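Teaching assistant here, posting this on the class forum so everyone can see the example we discussed in section. The complex has two components, and the goal was to see what a joint structure prediction looks like when all of them are supplied at once.
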Amino acid sequence: METSTQGMHQTFHNIGSSTDWIVMVVYFIVIMLFGSYFGRYNRSTKDFFFGGRRFAWWLIAFSIVATGVGSHSFVKYSAKGFEHGISSTMTYINDWFFLPFFLFGWLPIIVYTKIRSIPEYFEKRFSPSARFLATILLLFYMLGYIGIGFLTLGKAVLPMLPESFTMFGNEFQITLMGAVIVIAIITGIYITFGGQTAVIFTDLLQGFILLFAGFFLFFLGISYIGGIDVFWNLLPQEWKMPLAKFNHPTDFNFVGIFWQDGVAGSIGFLFMNMGLIMRFMATKSVDEGRKAATFNILFMLPLSAIVVGNAGWIGKAISISNPELVPPNTSPDQIFVVVANIVAIPGVFGFIMAALTAALMSTVDTLINATAAIYINDVYRPIRTFLKKHELTTKGEDKKELAAARYSSVIITALGVISVLAFKSFPTVYEAHGYFHSTLTPPLVVAIFLGLFWKKFTPAAVITTFVAGVALMIVGLHDPNVITPFNHGIEMDPNHPYSYIRALYNTFVCVFVAVAVTVTTTQQISVSKMLKAKSNGLQIVYVMIAIAVLTFVIVLFDLLPLTLQFVAILIMMFTTSVVSHYFIKYDQELQTTGLTVWSVDKAKEFFKGSKINNAEGEKIKVNWKQVEGEEDIVNFSKNDMDRMKAKVGDLVYLCDVRKYLGGLKSVHSVFGEPHDEDGIVHITEDNLLNGVFEKGRLLTAEKEM
Amino acid sequence: MYPCVILLTISLNFIKTFLEGYMPSFFDTWFPFIYLYVVGGFFFLVGMIIIKKSGAINLNIKRHKYWYRILIFGFFYFVVLHAFFIILALYW
């Protein structure tokens, strides 16, 4: 093990032995083979991205652990655990507040409206232009998230590598960016050949391994220190608190992190993170999605909080009892690796590091997969539709889309690497992630939230939020003093001003724009009608667009004094909203039905295509028999349909009877006309192939709605 | 809302100054807990009211009643969890 000092912090290199590297390589090969095995279940882009909406809640709940733990990584929480103690757990235990909105608002709507991406919701609820702007913001968000993932991976692996290596007589320095690029290539290769089903199953395996590895490390650490009592008594009292100090220090305080993570982060994670949403959409029903989300937040996140932070706490305790072994000025982002190396024997250390890096790769994989889904749905398809080349029904088109999804994954991976540059200057990954959340989530969070819960929220309001809201956020970036009234007493760090509490300012300005534009809708419509009546109305509208664009440029490059910028943004709010009303045709009744929380039942009806049958029937076990036919229907006997309280046209879910498969072999279909063979379902070849059913295996059948 | 935020900041500073005279660590121990569950609780309550009023959760359906109870249970589960760990940190 080598050490060097960079600035205030001591950094480590060459940690680990060759045994550890062998264990890591073997682990990666096993995980990739495991994923590739399940990759064969991808039959279409629907499967590639969504896993075919078939899985049981427990499978998704455990697969989310690897995604959540990976993204809220070992590296950053161990760093904060080392610097501030057990309060590193607080971001894992503040997600419940928005769960009612998610379970009974967002989740049923995204499933029942059959949307494939968040921007698609914006088109249905508002307009194509709202979708376009949402796509841009969401792509920024996802690429930033991928960048954070790569940065964390790089920081995790770097302590294990030498400072430099020699090749062909030349000495090469190993840099963070170099490590990130190599990792990105490995990650890109895996996701390109995997797909969502592969990711779900590798994440399932890794979820278990991560929990095991994290608790194993905790156990080893406690044993190393001399028992839980010694550990607890070594920690200073403030290190034992589950919540950070209210408003200090600037790099880790409760109130800033509450608004950045508890509010913007939680909503962003549940409502905007396409990777996570696609997992919930992969469950067999909305109710299973609810179970997965609830179980995850109630049980898995508190456990994960211990798993990811404990290396920092152990590191702190060792640094007090033996400061020569773990110097108090150890680079916080390296503490996980340093502690794991001290408390674990060679081989075990390699296993822990493999679990960590593989989990991080899972997160990045999921995000790349999700970003590719956004690209296909919101860029590729609209462009092909525009060029009149798109025919959804043809299988050839699906193949082309699958290929485009794979190519786009590679490009997204490269853009993710580039986005690392934006976050590299932050002292820790935690602060980089906090800043990222505070800055990129508010406009979309506000737009999704108000769109979902406020019927009066108009396309003009959402577009103005995206434009003027972002402009006001940029003002806050240029002049952090505007955030001061929101700071709750947090001091401003001139290098990274208000990294966390800026989330409150950004959310506030976006809500302000959204509400102000919505409540003045009548006046905007009057102006827009007046313009339509004028002969030179269109020219005036073009001038208004130019004013909005000019204002945005002025704000972006900080070309005017602050007060004038605010005035210009107010004018921009007016022009953008009027222009939106001028061009966008919007029918509030039509475009809110089934798309807001106020009409979830309608969404369910649209999903089914007819009235909902809410009668609660039995789940039954049946044998299957293949029949000829092209239609997507299955036929049961009259008696079996009575037991399930099903009618012709209702939706049915058929699944292999082996529960441990978690719905891997299953299919959704529609009840057809009944026959007379009790205990037997008649099923077509297409449904058999989709369900991957085996001869002689019983199926469970249940009426969905 | 802007004056409210300023008022809130002033009030927080006042509470801090007042309480520090009597209970030095309150502002950094129990106050974050209170803030978390008062402000977070407000969001939670609004969510519960909206999903109930909109009919998204229908308490006449057995399954929905179950979910309603789970949601309330979850809130208090986290309140107790945090309170327990604060007590543990302060007194154990």
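For the discussion questions: The mean pLDDT of chain A is 86. DSSP finds 28 helices and ten strands in chain A. Think about how each of these relates to the inputs above.
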